[in-house]
Design brief:
By secondary structure, the protein is an alpha/beta fold. Helices cover 36% and strands 12% of the residues. The strands form three sheets. Strands 2-1-3-4 form a four-stranded parallel β-sheet, covered by helices on one side. GO terms for molecular function: metal ion binding.
Length: 322
């Protein structure tokens, strides 16, 4: 596991009041009366400091929130709706880390962030050991020459596999425990509950996708290879993860071939979006148009678990599962 790169201690400030002396409360001066009453001792309890954790992307922030609970304040570095792999972080974006206690990220698919990590004042935890990013077909160059370096881009969507996602949760829990050992039992308890929820999600997917008429997951973006690998399906993507690279006519011919061979009932656009190429493909191939959520950003009116279950229902309908 990648350790925190810069040490950090959390200081609990204790206000010690000697018998017979004046109040010692925030904002008071020596010998002045406390606003809490004539006794001079404030009745307002000291709030225990919270770890301020920043995650590079929403799914990591969701794990931090589930494990850290009230002891950790989690936020997301990448703006809502932005594609993190192609996003260039500005000084203002990175400035949000100035007051942070730790940054959680996965190296290897965000060049802008990878380049900035060494210059940041906040400690950082690289989760690449547990995320175990791999190369999947056609991510950078769509269906082009995968012998080239462009076709060897790491697939960042590790959270689409609940089993792999659970391993990342374990590393986050260990990192929080190392930073804040006094609350280790809380982090361990929350991790156990989270792992139970992710194991249940894995079971739902395993059972829900075990008997399907089609195994071809035809999607707009190549965001589901970890999922299709886990549950013995085949991903057929119109485009890779880079939004700047448009699909070629060769790419579209390959997708149509995949539809003809896999015979899915539906193909999958991105949730909340309408890409004309998917509408055209559905019309040309006689398939229905459904949607899947990449869960790159926080889902509208939901969280990770709800978005994954919505994806499962969409897959079951589109693949004709019973």
């Amino acid at each position: 596991m990648e350790s925190v790169q810069k040490p950090h201690r959390f200081l609990i400030v204790l206000c010690c009041v000697a018998l017979g002396c004046g109040a010692c409360s925030p904002g008071s001066t020596s010998g002045s009366p406390s606003a809490a009453g004539s006794s001079g001792v404030s009745t307002t309890p000291q709030q225990e400091p919270r770890i301020k954790a920043v995650a590079s992307v929403y799914p990591i922030a969701w794990l931090i929130d589930q494990i850290g609970g009230e002891k950790v304040e989690a936020s997301v570095l990448t703006p809502q709706g932005a594609e993190p792999w192609g996003y260039t972080y500005s000084e203002a974006d990175l400035g949000a880390l100035n007051g942070a206690d730790v940054l959680f990220y996965v190296a290897g698919f965000q060049p802008s962030l990878d380049a900035a990590v060494g210059q940041l004042s906040a400690p950082s935890v690289n989760l690449e050991e547990s995320a175990k990013l791999v190369h999947h077909r056609g991510l950078a160059s769509n269906h082009g020459d995968e012998s080239s370096e462009a076709g060897r881009q790491l697939d960042p969507y590790f959270w689409q596999d609940p089993v792999r996602f659970s391993l990342v949760a374990e590393e986050i829990s260990q990192s929080l425990t190392n930073m804040d050992p006094e609350n280790s039992s809380l982090y361990a308890q929350n991790l156990a509950q989270l792992k139970t929820a992710l194991e249940g999600l894995d079971t739902e997917f395993s059972q829900g996708l075990s008997q399907c008429a089609s195994h071809a997951v035809v999607s707009y973006r190549a965001a589901y290879a970890y999922l299709t690998d886990r549950y013995h399906l085949n991903q057929v993507a119109v485009r890779g993860i880079d939004p700047s690279i448009d699909p070629t006519q060769k790419d579209l011919r390959m997708v149509k071939l995949g539809i003809a061979e896999g015979r899915p009932k539906a193909i999958f656009d991105e949730a909340g979006k309408s890409n004309p190429v998917m509408t055209d493909l559905a019309g040309q191939t006689g398939t229905q148009l459904a949607s899947l959520d990449t869960i790159t950003s926080e889902p509208a009116m939901a969280d990770y678990l709800a978005a994954m279950r919505a994806n499962l229902e969409s897959l079951r309908g589109g693949l004709g599962c019973v």
